[in-house]
Specification:
Number of domains: 2
Order of helices and strands: HEEEEEEEEE
Helix content: 10-25%
Number of strands: 9
CATH architecture of the largest domain: Sandwich
Structural class: alpha+beta
Low-confidence stretches: none
Radius of gyration: 28 Å
Largest sheet: 5 strands, antiparallel
Strand content: 25-35%
Shape: elongated
Number of helices: 1
Amino acid sequence: MTEASPKDKTGVSNRLGWLLAALAATALAVTNVKTLHESWCQNVGIFCALPVVSAPMEASSGGTAGPYSKDAKCRESNVPLCVRPTTSRRKLDVGSGKFVATSTVGRYDNGLPLNDPAIATWPSDASPQVGWYPKSDSASEICVQVFTRTGACEVLVSIKGRLEATEHIDP
């Protein structure tokens, strides 16, 4: 049995040290990828999808004992909600718009388009009372229509939320 010389032990220690240093550098680089990407997108922006968010909105219908025909609270509410590019150098990503509801009271429709066959059954007891549907979708403007409606004036239905989309720098 031969015993390793002190020189061999030092070589293994050096290799192990370099291996650990390389592993630590790789871990640091992987950790910083997200930070580098965020910095790139905020300062340069090319090849990045940047968020665009509308102001929060809310709408309601019902919640009063008055007769439907005389009380404005009982009528259907339709609120257009739009986002546009944040600067003239940016374009919206077509198809990226989505209403994000933070609160709903009533049967909710999460974005059925107006030509959806399910809408043909309205009005019925299963009809949505609150929700949204797409209105326009282009690189210069994305709009949705947010609605509330109730057939029972004493029943309050409501929705709160905002429109979210993404944009990119137009090269």
